[in-house]
Amino acid sequence: MAQVRFHDTNEYISSAEEVVTFLNSQEIIYENWGVDRLDPKHRDNYSPTDEEKQEILDTFKAEIDEISKRRGYLTADIIVLSDKIPNLDELLTKFKGEHHHTDDECRFCVDGHGIFAIKGKDGRYFDVELSPGDLISVPPNYRHYFTLMDDRKIKAIRLFVTPAGWEAIY
Ligand SMILES: [Fe+2]
């Protein structure tokens, strides 16, 4: 279950209900699909083959189809970040640059953790710390950046309308 941390006070929102209420108030989509139905062979595998990636996508097909219909997403794929990637630090430096997109940025965390740091409607910055089973969709034009947590790894499903709408505007 995701947690929210405010940058200015370092305060956390940890109760599931309060996290959902807060993110809804920010018009950020948050869902908890869970990962219980995922075949254990996929857990903590940070080098999935194309076939394994497809199996993960197939596992969550009903949820992906439902949110895609609702939000107009046309493509789903899997992104993996871990220390197995030789230029991980370079990528993280890039991801830490604040930016926005013209479409939603939608991610479902399968393994590991990730942080979306978001500038809220009132200008206040907060982190949304994602755990396995969490889905977030950052709406268009919300300034944000992404980083990893202490485990330095994530495997996530990306959902998007078009690659163009998902380009970062710094
Ligand atoms: Fe982004």
Automatic annotation (TrEMBL):
<dbReference type="GO" id="GO:0005506">
    <property type="term" value="F:iron ion binding"/>
</dbReference>
<keyword id="KW-0533">Nickel</keyword>
<comment type="function">
    <text>Catalyzes 2 different reactions between oxygene and the acireductone 1,2-dihydroxy-3-keto-5-methylthiopentene (DHK-MTPene) depending upon the metal bound in the active site. Fe-containing acireductone dioxygenase (Fe-ARD) produces formate and 2-keto-4-methylthiobutyrate (KMTB), the alpha-ketoacid precursor of methionine in the methionine recycle pathway. Ni-containing acireductone dioxygenase (Ni-ARD) produces methylthiopropionate, carbon monoxide and formate, and does not lie on the methionine recycle pathway.</text>
</comment>
<keyword id="KW-0479">Metal-binding</keyword>
<dbReference type="InterPro" id="IPR004313">
    <property type="entry name" value="ARD"/>
</dbReference>
<comment type="similarity">
    <text>Belongs to the acireductone dioxygenase (ARD) family.</text>
</comment>
<dbReference type="InterPro" id="IPR023956">
    <property type="entry name" value="ARD_bac"/>
</dbReference>
<feature type="binding site">
    <location>
        <position position="105"/>
    </location>
    <ligand>
        <name>Fe(2+)</name>
    </ligand>
</feature>
<keyword id="KW-0028">Amino-acid biosynthesis</keyword>
<comment type="pathway">
    <text>Amino-acid biosynthesis; L-methionine biosynthesis via salvage pathway; L-methionine from S-methyl-5-thio-alpha-D-ribose 1-phosphate: step 5/6.</text>
</comment>
<feature type="binding site">
    <location>
        <position position="99"/>
    </location>
    <ligand>
        <name>Ni(2+)</name>
    </ligand>
</feature>
<keyword id="KW-0408">Iron</keyword>
<dbReference type="InterPro" id="IPR011051">
    <property type="entry name" value="RmlC_Cupin_sf"/>
</dbReference>
<feature type="site" description="Important to generate the dianion">
    <location>
        <position position="107"/>
    </location>
</feature>
<feature type="binding site">
    <location>
        <position position="144"/>
    </location>
    <ligand>
        <name>Fe(2+)</name>
    </ligand>
</feature>
<protein>
    <recommendedName>
        <fullName>Acireductone dioxygenase</fullName>
        <ecNumber>1.13.11.54</ecNumber>
        <ecNumber>1.13.11.53</ecNumber>
    </recommendedName>
</protein>
<feature type="binding site">
    <location>
        <position position="99"/>
    </location>
    <ligand>
        <name>Fe(2+)</name>
    </ligand>
</feature>
<dbReference type="InterPro" id="IPR014710">
    <property type="entry name" value="RmlC-like_jellyroll"/>
</dbReference>
<dbReference type="Pfam" id="PF03079">
    <property type="entry name" value="ARD"/>
</dbReference>
<comment type="subunit">
    <text>Monomer.</text>
</comment>
<dbReference type="GO" id="GO:0016151">
    <property type="term" value="F:nickel cation binding"/>
</dbReference>
<feature type="binding site">
    <location>
        <position position="101"/>
    </location>
    <ligand>
        <name>Ni(2+)</name>
    </ligand>
</feature>
<dbReference type="GO" id="GO:0019284">
    <property type="term" value="P:L-methionine salvage from S-adenosylmethionine"/>
</dbReference>
<keyword id="KW-0223">Dioxygenase</keyword>
<feature type="site" description="May play a role in metal incorporation in vivo">
    <location>
        <position position="98"/>
    </location>
</feature>
<feature type="site" description="May play a role in transmitting local conformational changes">
    <location>
        <position position="104"/>
    </location>
</feature>
<dbReference type="GO" id="GO:0010308">
    <property type="term" value="F:acireductone dioxygenase (Ni2+-requiring) activity"/>
</dbReference>
<dbReference type="GO" id="GO:0019509">
    <property type="term" value="P:L-methionine salvage from methylthioadenosine"/>
</dbReference>
<feature type="binding site">
    <location>
        <position position="144"/>
    </location>
    <ligand>
        <name>Ni(2+)</name>
    </ligand>
</feature>
<keyword id="KW-0486">Methionine biosynthesis</keyword>
<dbReference type="GO" id="GO:0010309">
    <property type="term" value="F:acireductone dioxygenase [iron(II)-requiring] activity"/>
</dbReference>
<feature type="binding site">
    <location>
        <position position="105"/>
    </location>
    <ligand>
        <name>Ni(2+)</name>
    </ligand>
</feature>
<feature type="binding site">
    <location>
        <position position="101"/>
    </location>
    <ligand>
        <name>Fe(2+)</name>
    </ligand>
</feature>
<keyword id="KW-0560">Oxidoreductase</keyword>
